[in-house]
Structures are given as structure tokens and as C-alpha cells.
What does this fold into?
Amino acid sequence: MDWKLQTREAPCFTAAAGHTSEERFTADCVVPDTLPDVERLLTASGELCLWRLDLDKGSGELEGEIRCDVLYQAEDGPLQSFPVNVPVLLRFRDASLDPSMRPYLTLHLTELTPQLMNSRKVRIAARVRAELTAYATETLTLTESAEDAEICRQRTKVIFEPVTAVEEQVFSAVGTSALREECGHLLSAQSEVVVEEIQCVSQRLILQGRVRTRLLYQTTELISETVETPFSQLIDALTEQEITAAEAQVHLTSVHLNLLPEERAVEIAAVGRAVQK
It folds into this structure.
């Protein structure tokens, strides 16, 4: 008996290549002339910012930097801090990579260690772990029904969710937050993304969350405070099918802080990348 099946073709993505690498980066920096000599290093905090990810035939390259703040105790007593940027350039080879693929990248800053070389020089050692999955387009053929219903006496409902979109979009979060105390000197600031809700609406993905920034500043005493800046991002998927489930990765690419001492507040402008899979 020849079955006459009703079929439908649907475009989707399939994982065609995967690569994981971990590399160490170092940078030497000099204490700014406006700051006193270093007596003792206290800590270094930072975040990883990705600027560029390129795929080529059989290879890939990502570029970014680690933005960190070095906190130290000066020889004359008070705590001081200064920013340091550590360049990151990571190249990898994989024969299955192709520039037509859609990348899905996860980055981890696994190490950030300051080392005092002398009273005016500090060395920053960092380790970055990159996990890349590259998706290739393909056409999925789905069987919807058969003309002769008698051939199907037992029916089992099977639900599967293929990857129908791998899209990246830039978002921004801007806000002003009041501080508990008047900030005399900002020592360090570290930001992270908190994703609160991922909602699928037709061919769109609504992403909502907050940029949480931990501040350490000095008045008459040290003050540690956390401020939050909400954001909402709408991602359009290049697919004709309705999105039923989605996974999102959010990375910060830059965070700018502007102190408003007269208003006893801080203005935060953050830019990030949202990737939907």
C-alpha cells in the first residue's frame, strides 16, 4: 500500500559546530599620576565586554576587553582605585565552521588577579573561557496527515521544538538612582544582568530584566550600595513560524557611570547584546 502523506517544510537551525577554548591574558598598567603610590593591593573586580565575533571558513575570532577596577591602599593611608582595560583577542580553528552559520556564544571570566610589581605598576592576570555553538540552516520536512485514516490506528502525540531563530540584538538601559550618602569618591563599580522574564509573542521575543550595579564609594566612611536599572527589549525573529519557546543570553558590552553629587545620585547607561536561540 502506498501511503499518501501530507507534508510541510519548515526552516530551522541545527547545531553544526561547537568549540570551547580558554586562554589567559595579562596587562601591565601604571598608577595615574594624580593618585598616590600603592602600599597594598586589596582587590580587582571587572566584567568582560565583547565587541566583535567573526566566523570564517574553518576559523573564528572574537575581540573584546576586560574592564576592571583596581582597589588599593595608598602609602599615606586612604583607599584609592583606578580603571584598567585588559584587551582580549581569542582565535580558534574548527574545520566545520562557516561564515554563513549563526553563532551562539557564552563567555566566562574565570580569573582576575592583580599583582603589585612596584609602587607605581600593577599587573592584571585574567582567564577567559569561551563556549561557541554555530548553527546552520536546514529545511525540516514534517508529516501532517495521511489521506487514508485507517492506516493509523494508534496515535501518539509527539512535541518537539526545533531551533527556528538565532538572532542577536543590541539593547540599552539608562536610569538615575539615588544614593544613601553623598559620594565623595567612587572606588569601584561592577555590573551584571538579571533576566526576569522571557515572553514569546508570535514571531517576537520580549526580554525584561535589570542591570544590577554594585558600587563602593567613600564619604567619611566606606559605603557599599547596589542600584538597579530596568530594561525591556523586543527581539524580532527572522522566521515565519510562531515562537513557542526560547532561550536567551544577555551580555553587557559597556557600562558608563556619571556621578551627580549635587543630587546625591548616580546615572547609569548600559549597553548590551541579547541573543535569542
